[in-house]
Write a structure and sequence with these properties.
Helices cover about 0% and strands about 50% of the residues. With about 100 residues, it is an all-beta fold. Bound molecules: zinc ion (ZN) (2 copies).
């Protein structure tokens, strides 16, 4: 079973035991992860975005419906997601900023 990375187009072999909703790293892409879905026996992938915490550098995987303006929490603080348009690719970039 393979899924195709939405960013680089690489076919990625699914490890044994994956279930729908699992996260998988594309070996070619840094900065995002693939969220694997199974529907009617067909596996597909959507991009799951990551940001680093501005305070402790932890890497947080954003929920599927994350959007600019959302608040995320890490190390006891809240941070606001801002969206960075990085050009004509599928790859979106999020950044975190401190909530004033
Ligand atoms: Zn990729
Ligand atoms: Zn943190």
């Amino acid at each position: 079973m393979t899924v195709r990375c939405l960013d680089c187009g690489e076919e990625i072999e699914l490890p044994p035991g994956v279930t729908s909703g699992d996260l998988l790293d594309c070996p070619n892409c840094a900065g995002h992860t693939l969220r694997i879905r199974e529907k009617d026996g067909q596996w597909s992938a959507t991009l799951a975005y990551r940001v680093s915490c501005p305070a402790c550098d932890a890497v947080l995987t954003l929920p599927e419906d994350a959007k600019a303006g959302d608040l995320i929490e890490c190390c006891g603080r809240k941070y606001r997601l801002t969206f960075v348009n990085s050009g004509p690719t599928l790859r979106k970039r999020f950044r975190t900023s401190y909530v004033a």
